[in-house]
Design goal:
Keywords: ATP-binding, Kinase, Nucleotide-binding, Receptor, Serine/threonine-protein kinase, Transferase. It comes from Zea mays (Maize). One of its GO terms (molecular function) is protein serine/threonine kinase activity. InterPro entries: Kinase-like_dom_sf, Prot_kinase_dom, Protein_kinase_ATP_BS, Ser-Thr/Tyr_kinase_cat_dom, Ser/Thr_kinase_AS. A hairpin with a 2-residue loop joins strand 13 and strand 14. The protein has 2 domains: 92 residues, Phosphorylase Kinase, domain 1 (2-Layer Sandwich); 261 residues, Transferase(Phosphotransferase) domain 1 (Transferase(Phosphotransferase), domain 1, Orthogonal Bundle). 37% of the residues lie in helices and 12% in strands. It is α+β, with helices and mostly antiparallel strands. It contains 14 helices and 14 strands. Strands 1-2-3-5-4 form a 5-stranded antiparallel β-sheet, with helices on both faces. It has a 3-stranded antiparallel β-sheet with strand order 11-13-14, with no helix packed on it. The longest helix has 22 residues.
Length: 405
């Protein structure tokens, strides 16, 4: 799907979404520290209740934040005009007495990251991980279809509601995409180490494919259940994208999959998911899929999981399984899966369609192509070691970003 320009109409009246500072203070019990549920580059996020009882998340700009009026106005402008089930909704705003406050719908289950690692929350099943990935892809695809590049796609910016429905959040640094006759826009570099595409970092050339690459890093988190940068691990494993991509190309998905789901997830599903990850992390932007294609692939994979996997369809662990199995047997396995998906479609009245430009057959041809995608364009230091940085970055600067929004 080509990029479409978002038609920016006249701003809605200020009083429609405005909330007074007095009401914000009441909602958060005067910004009580016990109500803090997260923090980010913009400031702290508080849990609160509006006068009508609506539970909300209140993001207040810190006085020393490097983000300011530009990010505040950008997010306010976008979210009051964009509406989608997979975007976190902005309800109110306040700019009284120098404050910059945004009031969002409350996402009860917090960040996707908190359900993958670093918390005591119950682990997500493979189906739940696919559902979250698909929901986030829907939100990101909607942004792209309206000419908006997110610019800071990561697992802490994907929020889950009480039904574990995933929604994209934090549009403060989002940017309008290029004109239809251009491939990118030139801009200052903003993003987060571990998710940030090296091509964008080095050139300042931003495109929707920059988001796709970052989303590929998120999908690796979903698969592996670990942080994108973890200095507790050996040097080769510190950077998840560098290590995880190499392992997938070598056919070692079983060695990197999150142990919490390893024994309950069919190897065939892991292999198919791994192939999506590799395409998102392709070296060149031109080789990466669009988010529309990624969404189709994830929906197809989710349809297969919901249809169930017959125990006799044994696949030995990755998109590279064809090195051990003939192209014909790989095709047979996929064909059998497709029959089950068709059965699911008939029962649910829904079509699960793979992107037309992608072959999910586990053939030797696709395996050798993936193997050629060596290296990684995601930030790493000398000798392939991850750079010791954290948080969202601007060119030659680092700032903290520990939690949601």
């Amino acid at each position: 799907m080509g990029l479409m320009r978002l038609r920016m109409g006249k701003p809605k009246p200020k009083d429609e979404h405005y909330i007074s500072l007095h009401d914000v203070r009441e909602a958060t019990n005067h910004f009580d520290s016990q109500n803090v549920i997260g923090s980010g580059g913009f400031g702290k996020v508080y849990r609160g209740y509006l006068k009508d009882g609506t539970e909300v998340a209140v993001k207040r700009r810190d006085k020393d934040s490097r983000q300011g009026a530009e990010e505040f106005e950008n997010e306010k402008e976008l979210l009051f005009r964009l509406e989608h089930p997979n975007l976190v909704s902005l309800i109110k705003f306040c700019d009284e007495k120098g404050e910059m406050i945004l009031v969002y719908e409350y996402m009860k289950e917090g960040t996707l990251q908190s359900h993958l690692y670093g918390s005591n929350k119950p682990p997500l099943s493979w189906e739940q991980r696919l559902e979250a990935s698909t929901g986030a892809a829907k939100g990101l695809n909607y942004l792209h279809s309206n000419g908006i590049i997110h610019r800071d796609v990561k697992s802490v910016n994907i929020l889950l509601d009480e039904n574990l429905c995933a929604k994209m959040g934090d549009l403060g640094v989002s940017k309008a995409g290029p004109e239809l006759d251009k491939t990118h826009v030139s801009t200052r570099v903003i993003g987060t180490i571990g998710y940030l595409d090296l091509q964008y970092w080095m050139t300042g050339h931003l495109s929707v494919k920059s988001d796709v690459g970052s989303f590929g890093a998120v999908l690796l988190e979903v698969l592996c259940g670990r942080a994108v940068i973890d200095h507790r691990l050996s040097a080769e494993k510190v950077n998840l994208v560098c290590w995880g991509k190499k392992m997938l190309e070598e056919g070692n998905v079983a060695e990197i999959v999150d142990e919490k789901i390893r024994d309950t997830t069919h190897p065939h599903n892991l292999a198919m998911f791994g192939s999506i990850v590799l395409r998102c992390l392709a070296e060149e932007n031109a080789e990466r899929p669009t988010m529309e294609e990624v969404l189709r692939d994830l929906e197809w994979e989710l349809g297969m999981v919901r249809a169930g996997n017959p125990p006799d369809e044994s696949v030995h662990g990755s998109a590279s399984v064809a090195a051990e199995n003939s192209g014909e047997s790989g095709h047979a396995a996929v064909s059998s899966q497709e029959k089950k998906v068709k059965a699911l479609e008939r029962s649910q009245g829904k079509t699960y369609e793979r992107s037309p430009s992608v072959s999910h057959e586990l053939s030797a041809t696709s395996t050798s192509r993936a193997a050629r995608l060596s290296g990684s364009r995601f930030l790493q230091g000398r000798n392939g070691n991850a750079m010791k940085m954290k948080g969202p970055v601007e060119l030659e600067s680092i700032s903290e970003d520990e939690n949601c929004f």
